[in-house]
Design goal:
Length: about 230
């Protein structure tokens, strides 16, 4: 039986044009995909673009374009980069495509059925550039650790019950010691999980460019579940 092998580039964020870092990761994944095909594997090689979020919405607004038109423009540049590099991608996915939105919607509904989501509220220092919330103690001179500006955000949000999976994850890592490699990274992950997992904010109401939350159109699905 032919062994299946799946490899993907990062799905590239469309807030700007491709650069050498994008080319490098595409090249690295293409080399791996070609090698595994030579080794007899049934390879699925994916690339694509991550197109939703507040950063894209604001960048598009600054450019005098709609988010969709801006994403269409930059996505084309990423496709042209892959073509120029002769990357052997089997598929190129966009998070603004109907097939992706359908998958995200079904996944959300499955989480609801499994009682993995609840509506709460979230507040904190948010970096649009990093698309990350930071605690007060993490700020350096009033900015994110990356140097990006932050703004105080308070909004209702759906949360994923990540905390309820802590014990199950630790048991899984123990039962499958080769699941994370190398061992140093496995130990790092286990140490992180043992410190305690907090529930994850997975929706936003402060922007509209995203996949609408099923049954609650005031929210869009956040990147943690969308991309």
């Amino acid at each position: 039986m032919t062994r299946a092998f799946y490899v993907t580039t990062p799905i590239y964020y469309v807030n700007g044009s491709p650069h050498v870092g994008h080319a490098y990761t595409t090249l690295a994944c293409d080399v791996l995909a070609r090698f595994m095909r030579l080794d007899g594997c049934d390879v699925k090689f994916l690339s694509g673009t991550d197109e939703h979020g507040q950063k894209v919405e604001r960048t598009a607004e600054a450019a005098g374009m709609t988010p969709q038109a801006f994403a269409d423009k930059v996505e084309k540049e990423f496709r042209e980069m892959a073509k120029a590099m002769k990357a052997t991608c089997d598929d190129f996915i966009r998070t603004s495509e109907p097939r992706h939105k359908k998958g995200v919607t079904k996944f959300w509904e499955r989480l609801v059925e499994n009682d993995d989501l609840y509506l709460g509220s979230y507040s904190g220092w948010y970096s649009v550039t990093d698309e990350t919330f930071f605690a007060e103690k993490e700020l350096i001179n009033g900015k994110a650790p990356t140097g990006a500006n932050v703004e105080w955000v308070e909004e209702p949000s759906y949360f994923f019950r990540l905390s309820k999976y802590q014990d199950r994850l630790l048991k899984f890592y123990n039962d499958h010691p080769d699941f994370i490699a190398p061992a140093s990274r496995r130990n790092e992950v286990i140490s992180f999980v043992k410190q305690g997992l907090i529930d994850l904010s997975v929706s936003r109401t402060t922007f509209t460019w995203g996949v609408p939350v099923p049954g609650d159109p005031d929210h869009v699905v956040y990147v943690w579940l969308d991309a």
